[in-house]
Amino acid sequence: MTTSHTGTGAVDPAVREELARLRDSIDNIDASVVHMLAERFKCTQQVGHLKARHQLPPADPAREAKQIARLRALAESAKLDPAFAEKFLNFIIAEVIHHHERIAESNGSGNEDGDESVNGTAPASG
């Protein structure tokens, strides 16, 4: 690859092309992440309804701890910072618990099909 700048300060066209290619890939990955999170939230929304119907608590600390340990191990094997992965999962878990609490407050009525319309977003941990 050539240097990033020419003598006039303009960016080399080859560098611009490579940057555009990489950014296109990043955009595709971001779209995939959003779609995968949406699917995950659809599942956890259904878990929230199931828990509410059977008077189970919205949070499951043992499951959460197991998932955090699992995700940290996956992150390590993927060369991703395990602390970052844990923070990410904790963020998702907090949102899921919030949604499960809202579902439980409504006695699990309505939204039996797993619709995320509780507050416009969907939950995550299960």
Q: Sketch the topology as an H/E string, one letter per element.
A: HHH
Overall 3D geometry? elongated
Strand content bin: under 5%
Strand tally, please? 0
Between the first and last Cα atoms, what is the distance in angstroms?
Answer: 47 Å
What is the helix content?
55-70%
Low-confidence stretches: 108-125
Label the structural class: mainly alpha
Mean pLDDT: 85
Computed over alpha carbons, the radius of gyration is: 21 Å
Our count of helices gives 3
Largest sheet: none
SSE order and pairing:
Blueprint: H1 13-53, H2 61-77, H3 82-105
Textual characterization of the structure:
The chain is mainly alpha-helical and 126 residues long. It is 65% helix and 0% strand. It is built from 3 helices and no strands. Helix 1 runs parallel beside helix 3 and helix 2 runs antiparallel to helix 3. It is elongated, with a radius of gyration of 21 Å. The N and C termini lie far apart (47 Å).
